[in-house]
Amino acid sequence: MNERILITGGAGFIGSNLAEELLKLKKEVFVIDDLSTGSKENILDFKENEQFHFFKGSILNKKFLENIIKNNNIDFIFHLAAVVGVKNVLENQLKSLQVNINGTETVLALASKYNIRILLTSSSEIYGKSKRLSFKETDDRILGSIQNSRWSYANSKAIDEFFALAYYKEKKLPVIIVRLFNVTGKKQTGKYGMVIPTFIKQALENKPITVYGTGKQKRCFSDIKDTVEALIKFMNHKNVDGEIFNLGNNEEITINDLAKKIKNITKSKSNIIHLTYKKAYKEGFEDMYRRKPNIKKIQKILNWKPKYDLNESLKQTINFYKQKN
Ligand code: UDP
User: How much is the CA Rg of the chain, to the nearest whole Å?
Assistant: First the structure.
């Protein structure tokens, strides 16, 4: 079937990689993006494809959104549009809350009105600062004080999840909630604070690689190709509505080791330096010590597992940046 798929935030890192794959599968793809963190460059390769349609605008604009949904017979929505990136969110508190809460509710309400199945991307941020070895979908959440602005993103995404579940229960909206853990790959930019593109850029320019805090904090990075594969599997799976899933890789690495790895692969002359969080983010920041997904649920239901390990992902991402420069 020639499905017609809408991606909000489709010019961003994840959205544009998803659009590329859906076009390969001969789907008709409609992208909405306000190009705040997404970019035209990300969609350049397929801009001329007849199956691809781009609409510039914000998800806060209900009329604009409704016209696109109503006029294009959309079969499925991937809702990815959000103010993302720790630095970006800290610097744009109000916009982040407005887009991530009001914008998402607008998208869910329209999906409900036109009865369109939708996948909502949430975030591992919602688990907060719990020191658990790994996070399971049903785990409690431990968040910091309101004075630490970092937690506003986690709260906004949690509200999105509550909205989605309420629409599912009370309005029968077919919705799937997917909590993304850290993702890496081509087209991700370091401009909004993400660690891997930041370190790669620093390493390729032989500038200091800036590790924040002690560098002992750990993360797990999922390759964008694995991430996109799982997102499409969710769309094709008919019995996952009203469910919440973690999506990520469960191979952990400290940020210190990540810096060393990137320095080695790029054969960089950069020094690895440590910056205090206060220097890096100013006020209102608190880091998460670890963030590893328990992926038993997604593995069982989607029959999916991560194929790419971090070394392989990093090599491909580094090549992407080398070609870009
Ligand atoms: N980080 C770092 N140097 C940078 C950017 C980030 O050491 O230049 C650290 C950051 O403090 C965090 C980790 O890398 O501990 C991952 O940061 P990112 O913003 O990519 O994702 P998140 O914190 O949301 O997992």
Answer: 19
pTM: 0.97
Question: What is the separation of C-alpha 115 from the centre of its chain, rounded to a whole number of angstroms?
Answer: 25
* Cβ neighbourhood burial of 275 (10 Å; 0-12, 13-18, 19+): middle
Domains observed in the chain:
4-183+223-249+292-307 (3.40.50.720)
Binding site membership of 195 for ligand 1 (Cβ less than 6 Å)? yes
Residues marked active site are found at: 153
Residue 282 has pLDDT above 80, yes or no: no
Site to substitute for ligand 1 among 219, 222, 260, most atoms within 8 A of C-beta: 219
Confidence of residue 150 (pLDDT cuts 50, 70, 90): confident
Antiparallel, parallel or unpaired: β 76-79 and 117-123: parallel
Q: Ligand 1 centre from 30 Cα, in Å?
A: 31
Distance from Cα 265 to the centre of ligand 1, integer Å:
19
How far apart CA 15 and CA 33 sit, in angstroms, is 10
Average pLDDT over residues 291-317: 96
Going by the DSSP 8-state scheme, the letter that residue 18 receives in this structure is: H
At 66-125, the pLDDT tens digits run 999 999 999 999 999 999 888 888 889 999 999 999 999 999 999 999 999 999 999 999
